[in-house]
Design brief:
Layout lengths: L59 E2 L5 E2 L5 E5 L2 E5 L1
Length: about 90
């Protein structure tokens, strides 16, 4: 069978492995293998909480938070409230 590059299957070169990756190999024995995994809880690293108050600066913003000078038709945020301009 031929792949997209026009080469026969099985002719692929092995993928390059980054130097900083620790590669380990495992040879499957003829009998069954059991694997146990233990997950350890960890903290998220959040040290402060951002103030989530609404902006009251008189500017107009799109729903994605981009400030606009002169809003046209559409849905905007102005002083922390959704405003529809028709």
């Amino acid at each position: 069978m031929t792949n997209r590059a026009g080469e026969e299957e099985g002719d692929e070169e092995p993928a390059d492995i980054e130097d900083n990756v620790d590669v380990k190999s495992f040879i499957m024995p003829n009998n069954s293998v059991s694997i146990a995994v233990t997950f350890k809880a960890s903290t998220t690293g959040i040290h402060t909480i951002k103030d989530n108050t609404q902006r009251q600066d008189g500017k107009w913003y799109t729903l994605s938070g981009v400030a606009v000078e002169k809003p046209t038709k559409g849905l905007y945020i102005h002083n922390g409230k959704k405003v529809v301009i028709k």
